[in-house]
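Subgroup meeting minutes
Present: P.N., E.W., G.H.
Scribe: E.W.

1. P.N. recapped why we're keeping a running log of single-chain structure predictions: easier to compare across weeks, and new members can see raw inputs and outputs side by side.
2. G.H. added today's entry (359 aa).
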Amino acid sequence: MKKLFVLIVVASVFVACKERSEGRPDDRFPAAVQMSRLGGLDVPEDSLGVVEWMACEGGNLIAFDLHSGACYTLFDAGTGAYVGRFGTIGQGPAEIPAGCYGYLSGKRFSVFNDQVKFVMQYSMDSLRNGHADASPKRLASYDIPDLQLSRLIALNDSLFLGAGLYQSHYQYVLFDRHSRVMDKAVPVYNASDDAFNFSIKYLANQGDLVKHPRKDKFAYSLNFSSNLDFFEIDDGKLAVIRQLHWGDPDYRPSEMDLGNGYVGFSADLTESSIVGYISLAATGRYVYALYSDKKVYESARKSKEVLVFDWDGNPVRRYALDADAYSIAVDEASGKLFAAIVKEDTGEWDIVCYPLNEA
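Output recorded in log:
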C-alpha cells in the first residue's frame, strides 16, 4: 500500500536541568507588565498578507506573508519604513518555492524548504539597496535519511542546525553542507510512543527556533505545548542548558484512506489541546515567547501574553500587549518588540511595535 505524508494538524549523553511539571508557565513569572504601543509600521494598503512569522535583526524586519507571487515583506526596523517585497515564487534562478521558512542573522537571511531539501541565502545589503529581485545564493542541497525539519538556522555557509525529527528519536541535528551529521540531540517527547509513526511524530514535534545573536545558544518551543528547550553548541557538540517541559502537546495520531491505495497521516488536536507557544524572538539578553494557555478549540493561535526568559532558561518577566498578536519579533538595537495583529475595524493585517526595557 502506498503511503502519502500529509502535513495536517487539526484546529548522545546529556547532563542538564530538565523540569517536568504541570501548571501554567506564567504562574512562574511576576505580574504582567502592560505594554504601551508606540505605533505601527508604514504598511502600504493591501501590501501585507497573512503574517505567518517575522524575523528582525540588524535594522531589518522581515514578515513572511505569502501573497502576490512573493514570500516576504521587508521593513526598516528603526523607522518602520516599507522597503519592498522579495522572495519571488517559482523555479527560476532568482526564485524559491512557496512556504520557505527563514532565519535572519546580521546581513544574511537564510531560507530552506524541507520538501526540496535546500538552503539558500539572501544578502540584506542587496535587498536594502533596491534589488528586490536579488538572486539568493544556494548554500546546500541536503539529503539525510530519516530527517524531517521544522526549522533550520544556517550557522555559516557550510554548517546548519535543524529542529524537527531525526531517526524517529532526536529533536535536533547538526549537519554540514555535504549532508554529514555532526551531532544529534534530545529525544522528542513521544520518542517511545508506538502510536506515532515517523510521519505523525514529525507533525507532533514542529515548533519555533531562535538563536542568540552573538553566541551559539538556541531556544526551541514546541507547538501546542508548554515545552521550551535551551541548548548550545559546545566544542562542536550539542549540549542542553535547560529543558522547561511544563506540558506536552496533546495529539491523537490518525491515518486516513485517501483512495487509490494512498494513506495519509495526521496529528489531530483534541479538546484538551492548548494553543501553547506560538512564536519566539531573541536578543543577546533574553528570549521572548508569545504564549497562550487557552484551549485550541476556544481560541485562534494568537495571544496578548509574552513570556521573557534569560538564556539560562530562567523566567524573568511577563508582558501584556494591548492586542492579540499572531507572531512577534524584537530589534535589539532600537529596543522594540514588533507584533503582527489583525485590525479590529477592518480585519486587515498590520504590524505594531512596543518599547522594550531590557534592564
